[in-house]
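Incident log, structure service

09:12 report received: a user says their structure output differs between two submissions of the same chain.
09:20 pulled the input from the user's history:
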Amino acid sequence: MADNEYEDLDKLLERAAAMDLESEERWEIIRKIQRRADRPAFDAACAFAHSDSWAKRVLGLDVLGQIGYKQNRPFAEETLPILIQACEDDHPYVLGSAITALGHVRDPRGLAAVLRHSSHPSEDVRFNVAAALPSVCDDPPFAEAVTALISLSADPDPEIRDWATFGLGSQINTDTTSIRDALAARLTDPEEDTAGEALLGLALRHDPRTLPALLAMLADNPGNLIVEAAGELGSPEALPTLQRLKAEGWQDDDPRPSVLDDAIAACSR
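09:34 re-ran on a clean worker, output below:
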């Protein structure tokens, strides 16, 4: 890729649109344009977002989601209606990019457009919804957004369950019986990360169901979400197992080693 930040926009966009959606070079081009905050860059992305080609529409939306982020997003107001309109697109890749972009823009005015697709037949689109909802649901979140996240936390797809459980447990602060029950239902999820997110969400709410599940998970080669949950709960009953993990060098192989020391300190108080 050329080093010139302002090389021909059309050539850059055309080149990126012809690449695989997951291509690292494609995303390098997207990030390069997103660093810009000038009108020509925004207009070029908008033109692609309205293209007859689904691949170009996807590219334009991917750019628009974070264009100008280094300069406080000067085109945010103009971007929002484009993204909302794109949520009417029939192509699942375009729809997914529009929903993801709304999550990046983080404006509650995009909530209704995202919510409409919480039961979409495409697993990819439902995943995009689960990931975007916590960013567009306002604070405190609208009840409809919470209901959608609860439903998605029980989705057949494991990645959707994981992200929806993360959203319910840690990304929103609301504490209701229905949220707690939805998190408790995921404590036995076959996906370790989903169960860990559920445990952490219950620990943050100091739900009484947390401690027995925590002690069982700590005893079974726990990941850092489990250890973090121990720290949030701060229960002395977890201290012996945490100290054993420390003695066995658990922290030496974990990407977040300090979480164990924090949990030990919290449970020692």
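09:41 both user submissions now match this output. Likely a transient worker issue. Closing.
09:42 reviewer note: The mean pLDDT is 95. The radius of gyration is 21 Å.
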